[in-house]
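Please check both lines for our workbook:

___
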Amino acid sequence: MTATDEIQRLPEEGEIVIATVKEVTGHGAYVTLDEYNNMTGFLHISEIATGWIRNVERYVRPKQKAVLKVIRVNKTRGEVDTSLKQVSGEERKSKLIEVKKNEKATAFMDFIKSKLKLIDPQVAEIEEKILQKYDYVYDAFEAVARKGPEAIQNVDLAPEIKQAIEEESNKIQIPQVEVRGIMEISSKKPDGIEIIKSTLAGVESSKGGATTTVTYVGAPRYRIVVTAENFKVAEKSMNNAVEKIRSAMEKQHGAFSFTREESKKSHQSG
C-alpha cells in the first residue's frame, strides 16, 4: 500500500481492516473503515466474541479503533460485514505494523513533497517506483537507514529524490544490541605478537548484519564487541569469531581463553 494510495471503493472479503466504532447497538456495532474513506460497515454481535455477550460495550466502545476482518461484501448495496472474533493475534499484529509503517511513510513523503515542492501525482509516482522493490514505502526508508543509499540505488528515482529519502532515513532509530567479552591470548613464539595481531584482524568485519571489533585492553587481554540489530545475529557472529580465534591460536600452539561481559541494548539513528 502507498501512503497516498487511491482508495478502492470496497474492501475484499477476508481482508483485515482498521475500523473506528461509530455506534453501539443491542445487535452489534456500526463502524467506519478508516482505509476506505470512512465507509460504514457492521460488526454483528455474533462476530464480536465467542459465547454469549451480555454487554457489547465490554468489547467495543464508540470512537474505539479496532482491527476487523471483512467477512461479507454486498457490492450492489455497498454493505460490508465485519468480524472481530475471526481476527487472529498474528493478523492483528501484522495489521498494526502495516498501519504504523504507512503513517510513518506518509509523514516522510509529506516532508519530501514540501521540501522539493512536488505535487500529488509526483509523490504517487515515487511511491509506485519504491513499491516495485519494497512491500511498503516505509521499508525503503528503513533499508536506507540500515544499509545506506545503496539500498535504493536500483530504484528509478531522480538524484534529488534519493538524497531527500536518505536525509529522512537518518531520523529512523535502528535497534542495536551489543555482545562483548574479554579474550586472553598469548603466544610464546618469537613472532607471537604478529600472530595474534593477524588472527584478530581476521575477525574484524562488518557483514551479515553485524559489526565485530577487537580492542587491546592490556597484555594478554583483548576486548571483542559485536553489534547487530538483534541478539540472535550478534550471538552467531560472536561465536563464529571466538571459535575462529580459538582455532587459529591452537594451531599456533598459543593460549586462549574467553570470558563474557554484560550485553547491552540501545537505539542508533540511521
Summary: DSSP finds six helices and ten strands in the chain. The mean pLDDT is 90.
